[in-house]
Protein: Phage portal protein
Amino acid sequence: MSLKILGLKQFIKQVEKATDGGLKREFGLWLEGLGMDFLGLIQDEIIRTETVDTRRLLNSFNRGDSEGIWSISEGGLTLEIGTRLAYASYANDGHFQQKRFVPGYWRGDRFVYEPGASTGMMLREKWVEGSHYWDNALAIFERIFQRSLERRMQQWLDTEF
Structure:
């Protein structure tokens, strides 16, 4: 008993030709574009959830920022995005605020932090709820990634075969 699949050898040759470096390069560029999209989603969620007003956290999710993490490897199709800011996870997950004095002054209803100021405010110990900006952005990205991968694979198949 035998089974013959017509066109299988031709198909295998086309796959080998297509994957001879070109496909990895194409998918590396596609992955890089998705990484940029994810950075945008994180920034949008930081703004939407009003996580910070100093812009330090927001700016750390930029490609090329010294406090951001951005790495991509074409061959293994790996993309790593993050931030080196220690308080980023506290802002996302929540944390206990310790009782402490914060130097600065009030300008209307807004507190302005000023190191070394003789005035300021006393923070009390309490739980500060996280904004879940990262979790929200990741949930959105997962949906986008799935659709984008399906479209990209279909485009590749349509082009190559």
About this structure: The first helix runs from residue 8 to 18. The chain has a mean pLDDT of 82. Strands lie at 68-73, 78-83, 94-97, 100-107, 110-113, 120-123, 126-129.
